[in-house]
Design a protein that fits this description.
Catalyzes the first step in hexosamine metabolism, converting fructose-6P into glucosamine-6P using glutamine as a nitrogen source. This protein has about 375 residues and is of the alpha/beta class. Helix content is about 45%, strand content about 15%. The protein binds 6-O-phosphono-alpha-D-glucopyranose.
């Protein structure tokens, strides 16, 4: 069962363009057609445990850790269950407190990452319920956990994760909705509205992918920069981290993701003509705050690349370069914002002559330390 690049120059690009399908497969594998009910094996039992759980501890590494941070926003917002997100590598070595009424949720594309697996095994020994969101059927994590919800992203070959990430976020969104309904936090109307919008996400991903040529053109302007700052707020903060990580991984340009509101406590000191800033400005609730962050960057002569919703005027007018994504419920926005950020890094890396599918020093899954 050989996976080939087909018409694409790289696996990474192919995998980015597969997302309308991989997200649809993931969503529709967990959603019944007739009645908007979310489903995965063991979900009924898991929901009971989740509603009793004192807290959920998410453990993950790399890009999967960023989906974990988005999961934290989603679960706390929609289901009001406390969530902690941990780097598996830190968690396993610091004598963490894990109790029997905790649920430890591992997020992993491969299901084999050594640190994440070790964190899970430790948690199991402490008596916690273990739960995996992973992409590989029958992987170690899927076998060893009490519950597994699969992502259906298909085989991912590019070392830097793209389609597995958006599939993870889709599963976490559905999990948060299911928990919110179970816990009577989320009323049926809001749940149905979110699920209805989720059903349309694959089409909107398709639409976002059509901006690829425009993204490539913007990417060309940044081949010689030494460093990049990525800012986002709320549920888009983890997306800023993910955009920065992807740029580092494949183009070897230093990039730092930061919560936009924290900029004044450090990164603002670095801003001048030579340090460009990418600002994710799609959050409705914080929009004016994001605009004022952008003003602070402009006042210091920083170049701005803004990711905005279609129809945006204010932030788009201030930015030097604009990437657009369709507007959806704020909680669903990260999946769409991931697309231009991944493509932006991809094009910079390709134009710099980097090996995007196999970046130096990185491995697809780190199964040994
Ligand atoms: C490696 C890969 C990353 C990935 C991380 C976690 O560092 O290069 O792309 O996000 O491992 O992998 P996992 O399989 O656990 O999601």
């Amino acid at each position: 069962n050989m996976v080939t690049k087909g018409e694409y120059e790289h696996f990474m690009l192919k995998e980015i363009f597969e997302q309308p399908n991989t997200i649809a497969n993931t969503i529709f594998s967990h959603l019944s057609d007739n009645d908007d009910r979310i489903y995965f094996e063991g979900l009924e039992e898991l929901k009971k445990q989740l509603s009793k759980a004192r807290r959920i501890i998410i453990v993950a590494c790399g890009t999967s850790w960023h989906s974990g941070l988005i999961g934290e926003y989603l679960i706390e917002e929609l289901a009001r269950v406390p969530v902690e997100v941990e780097y598996a590598s830190e968690f396993r070595y610091r004598n963490p407190i894990v109790r029997e009424d905790d649920i430890v949720l591992a997020i992993s594309q491969s299901g084999e990452t050594a640190d994440t697996l070790a964190a899970l095994r430790y948690s199991k020994e402490q008596g916690a319920t273990t739960f995996a969101v992973c992409n590989v059927y029958g992987s170690s994590m899927a076998r060893e956990c009490d519950f597994t919800a699969y992502t259906y992203a298909g085989v991912e070959i590019g070392v830097a994760s793209t389609k597995a990430f958006t599939a993870q976020v889709a599963v976490l969104t559905m999990l948060a909705i299911a928990m919110g309904v179970e816990n009577n936090i989320l009323d049926d109307n809001r749940a149905v509205a979110l699920i209805t919008e989720l059903r349309h996400i694959p089409e909107l991903v398709e639409k976002t992918l059509q901006t690829d040529k425009a993204i490539e053109k913007i990417a060309k302007e940044f081949l010689d920069v030494n460093s990049f700052l990525y800012l986002g707020r709320g549920i888009n903060f983890p997306i800023a981290l993910e955009g920065a990580l992807k740029l580092k991984e494949i183009s070897y340009i230093h990039a730092e993701g930061y919560p936009a509101a924290e900029m004044k406590h450090g990164p603002i000191a670095m801003i001048d003509e030579s340090l460009p800033t990418l600002i994710v400005g799609t959050n409705e609730a914080f929009y004016e705050k994001i605009v004022s962050n952008a003003q602070e960057v402009k006042a210091r002569k920083g170049t701005i690349v803004a990711v905005v919703n279609e129809g945006d005027t204010e932030l788009a007018a201030m930015a030097d370069y604009v990437l657009t994504v369709p507007k959806v419920d704020e909680l669903l926005q990260p999946i769409l914002v991931a697309i231009p950020l991944h493509l932006f890094s991809y094009h910079i890396a390709v134009m710099k002559g980097c090996n995007v599918d196999q970046p130096r020093n990185l491995a697809k899954s780190v199964t040994v330390e």
